[in-house]
Amino acid sequence: MSEKNTVISFYKFVNWGGVSKRKKNLERFCIKRNILGTIILANEGINGTISGKDQHINEVVEFLKTDPHLVDLEPKYSYASSKTFARMKVKIKKEIVTMGVSNINPYESTGEHIKNEKWNEMIDDHDTLVIDTRNQYEYSIGSFKNAINPETNSFREFPKWIKDNLEKLMIDKKRVAMFCTGGVRCEKASSLLIKNGCADVYQLDGGIIKYLEDMNEAESLWDGECFVFDDRVSIKHGLLEGDFSLCHACRMPIDEEDIVSDQYVEGISCPNCHGTHSEDRKMRFAERQKQIKLAKERGEEHIGKTYKTNAI
Q: Residues 180, 186, 226, 247: which is the catalytic one?
């Protein structure tokens, strides 16, 4: 798969069942077409990012839409110059994006979806509290002007951050505007806020990916790059592949400045994690890096390479 690959991200919250049968059929359909990526199924819906040849990706989309629950599914398309995933996985989980709060039903109630142009106007307004619902490692390489960083390490931490901080942050604000990579986390986050009595809640329609695809860079309020959950690591305006790579020791995004640092050792440490690993872990990292190098010399993919769970 050395040619350009089509990458799609998609999600939908639905009230359905039969996920075990859906997993079996979907996994078989994707593997037969050499599709790579991860799809998460739960009783609350579906969430996935996959890549493959354009024709095969379109066949998967059509297959998904044969399910009456997914007939209006709207994937977000981008492209990669090389393979973005090592394997195909369809997983069954309790949630399609893990928040850990019961009785949150985004298919019943979420914040109002705001298109790009109105989004710019809204987040430029002093009366708007702008919240980045993503994690610290994502925020670190790019975010929107005026966005609050909750400094979370996982989406599970977000409800506590809201409980501890929202009231004081809203003292001089009239509304909340939230965003994430593709929209799925905002669906749950906005549903949580509405459940807790916050009336004026909005979210960026299509997430950062759609914004970077459609918004003219000269008019954009996005600063930096957007972390994505595949081998590209980050994307820029126009959905061009970004300049970041990934430290395979701590899973943090790193740039050229990090790579030339004395604290960077490929596969073993970077400025984010230097001095935090035990000697035993460093030895294991070194052996893994050796195996990656040997696999590359043989023209093979080292499948031990892992990425953060996809949470678009």
A: 180
